[in-house]
Amino acid sequence: MLDFTTISIAYYLYQKNIDFVERNNELITWCIFNDCDKCQKSIKDGHLYFSASNGQYHCKKCGEKGNIITLGKFLGDYNTMNNLMTKPTKKSEDIKTVIKKCNSNIPAEIRKYLNARKLDDNIINEYMIGYGEFYGKKWITIPIKDEEGKYIYIKLRRDPNDKDTTDTEKYLFYPKGQNVALFNYDSLIKSGDSEKIFICEGEFDCILLNSKGIPAITSTAGALTFKEEWIDNIKEYSKIYICFDNDDAGKKGCVDLIKKIEKKIIEAETGIYQINLPETGNIKDVTDYFVNNTGSVDEFVSGLPVHVCGRKPIDINQFEEIAPEHLTYILGLTIKRDYDNKLVTFLCMLSAYTEDTQFNVSFNAPSSTGKSFIPLEVKELFPKNDVKVLGCCSPSAFFHETGVYDKARNAIEVDLERKIIIFTDQPDPKLLEKMRPLLSHDQKELNAKITDKTQKFGTKTKNVIIKGYSSVIFCSAGLKIDEQECTRFILLSPESNQDKIKDAITEKIKKESDKVNYQNNINSNLDRELLKERIEAIRDEKIKCINIENEDKVKDVFFKGKTSLKPRHQRDIGRFVSLIKCFALLNLWFRKKENGIIFATDKDIEQAEELWYILAESQDSNLPPYVLNVYKEVILPCFDEKNNNEFEVNKVGISRNDIIKKYKSIYGRNVQVWKLRQEILPMLEDSGLIRQEQDEKDKRKMLVFPTEQ
Asked: How far apart are the first and last CA of the chain?
């Protein structure tokens, strides 16, 4: 007996062997009332339209109208007496009270039945599975929640001991008239990493998979009723697995759902996989697979899935161990010279794919030196969904742009877990202040407050919850950096020598002469394409921990050459260790791996040492390399030229005009007077490399004296 108060129109049409196609939340088929479509060859050209949500229909040719009940009467399935249900005895009880009461009243034989389906008592209580009498029959109860976690109705599954039940009477909803819902929406929130999600058929299968650590969801009304709008909740996942029952409805539902998802994720970086359950061993569904077949989680996740469309799985056997020299060669296809800058930038972005090894980079140099060019070129190698590029941004704009309002917590949630954020312009200083705890990677979840102006209430405070660690890259023409920011970044500056400028101009001419051919050549480079696949494969590994086997070697390398230690060395050691771990991450398939932990080798330490040796001097001085180079290439030579007698006791200071003239002779361009006076010289003075004194002959002038040679 069919219950027309709960059955979906899609399921009913399938039961009656009426084929249909789904389009824009409508089911289309040939007219079954008259001969409207006797000449139509394709079902897509049919004239009978059903609403997938409420079952109402209308033939666009003969004008027949009605709903699922009138259709049931027409096909001889609807009987008024058979569809009268007995209401629950206590109508006044709210849904939550009913759920608790049913959960506490599970008979021993029903508990034994559930346990046999691999649902132990803890799982039964977690999902509040219960047992009760509804509509004059005994049922197993499965509570259904909405997206906000509130109970909306109870799915009723007929007592397995009721021998009078037919297949079409097995399920009902309480209260009556409820629509199909997405079951176990919590798994979309709990999984968090947007790596994979499984869509199965049936609540018990779904609960079983989640109990085994496999994030799964299902429709409450069968294989044919997964709504298109639900796909928006899962299209950000990198892998979607579909595992329906081993029957005709399950196979047809799987094919239909694959088509729906494929249409929705054309632009997404998502792979769709179909899980084909074994045909032998009386395996009808997921539960049978784990109960009758004693199936394993590893086989279910890795052995059974078959890729059907979307992003293809990556073959890790094609990768070889890659050295820093080969990596800089690939990066050099679009970024000329700047060997260390592009390597550090790449490793910074790669560090996003770790649990807590992320580090930050700040490019500081005058305009037109290519600060933003390097990170923008490197980011082309990384998946688009993982990178966010922002210009100048206020705190409110940043949190509104990247966050989602959580009604339950009354806060804007900003999920930055394993993300890469690039600021191509100097961010608002207030934003830097708000992001200091985030940049320090001190806590996985931070609370912040922002203020918004509203027309009605004036200034209003909002709560912001920042979740996860990310890799952050700042690009700024401003050279002066607050000390609190300095210690949170690896400071970089693009090269600005004549060879670099000449190579950059040559490459620009080559690119602009034939952009299409230039880009095709870049995209067709096998090494570059293999590196892009390597990055995706590293991301998909979801590495959580990287250990270092030889910690004594790390100490020897870091302390080497340091006569005295500074407070910022406590943060610098973290960056040095991050470089070591990133080199290990780059070659994770060639490193020892135990229980999801990979181990960095002496080779990784040596590669990080070679890179850190080049970076250390500017980091140790809290200076961008550009400012340090002005000191070494301009100020020191200028001072030596003015004091050519090395035995002279009373050294003569150099003026700002002397520095400006020397700067132009070295770099072939002028330095802005205000930038020299307000940024470069104060930073050098704060670092202890120079001192400034008034000229005794002209008190209006300041003279510069190096304090170290």
From this structure: 95
Structure token pair of residue 629: 């180079």
DSSP 8-class letter at 169: G
Find the mean pLDDT for residues 227-244: 86
Instruction: Please report which helix (H) or strand (E) contains residue 528, including its range.
Output: helix 526-541
- The model's pTM: 0.68
Which runs of consecutive H residues, i.e. helices, occur in 621-704?
625-630, 636-642, 656-667, 673-675, 681-686
The C-alpha torsion from 88 through 90 and 92 to 97, rounded to 10°, is: -90
**HSE-CB for 165 with a 13 A CA cutoff:** 17
Beta strands per DSSP E along 267-341: 271-275, 305-310
> Cis (ω within 30 of 0) for the bond into 383?
no
What token pair was written down for 370? 């290519």
Q: What are phi and psi of 338, to 5 degrees?
A: 50, 45
130 membership: H or E segment, kind and range: strand 130-134
- HSE-CB at 362 with a 13 A cutoff on CA atoms is 28
Extract the tokens encoding 666: 């070295």
**Residue 609 CB neighbour total at 10 angstroms:** 19
Burial of residue 669 (CB within 10 Å: 0-12, 13-18, 19+) is exposed
Measure the CA–CA gap between 275 and 293, rounded to whole angstroms: 15
Nearest to 487 by CA among 521, 442, 520, 526: 442
Task: Give the integer Cα–Cα distance in Å for 517 and 531.
Answer: 21
- 487-515 per-position pLDDT tens digit: 678 888 888 778 888 888 888 898 888 88
Cα distance between residue 434 and residue 413, in whole Å: 15
Token pair listed for 269: 């970086």
